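SMI1 / KNR4 family (SUKH-1), Rubritalea squalenifaciens DSM 18772. Tokens?
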Amino acid sequence: MNGAKYQEFLKNYEEHVATSDYKSILLPNEPYEDGRECYFTQYGSVTDQTILEYESKYGVKLPEDLKNLLKLQNGGHVHEFAPYEECAFDSICSLTLDTSEDRWLFAMIPVYDWLELRGDVEDDEDLANDKEELERFIILDGDGHHFLALDYRGGEECKGVVSVSVEGGYYGAEEICTDFKSLFSYW
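Tokens:
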């Protein structure tokens, strides 16, 4: 999706938000066909203050395009906007400062923190050796073994989006694209 298409996508998203009632802010987060509640709606909305606190907590600067999407809808399915086959990407996790109980499962947190909360670090000592690097990947989406993540290995600015695999250990990250906005060009 080029820059103009991305801006059109954002505009359409904003119009949909403006014309929707609170229960169905955006189509991707409506209940499933069988009536189950979509898990993304439990995280609440994102404000500029929430983003500042999040960035301070993790020592990162989120990409502006991601901030704009999160303020419209805090996580949700994007299967209509990026092909699953190309980048294993069908949703964006939710931004939250609360990782208690099961809220961390779909939270935009460092890969290492997610693995630690699930108990993987305790089960695989080698992951602890990679803590410093795994803490610099912020999860966009994942299945517990493979993650699509923002890359902060160079500091607080995002270097791009990477695929991180921790199945059977961590063996490095593969670059998907150089910035968050480019992720939508896979569409």
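The chain is about 35% helix and 15% strand.
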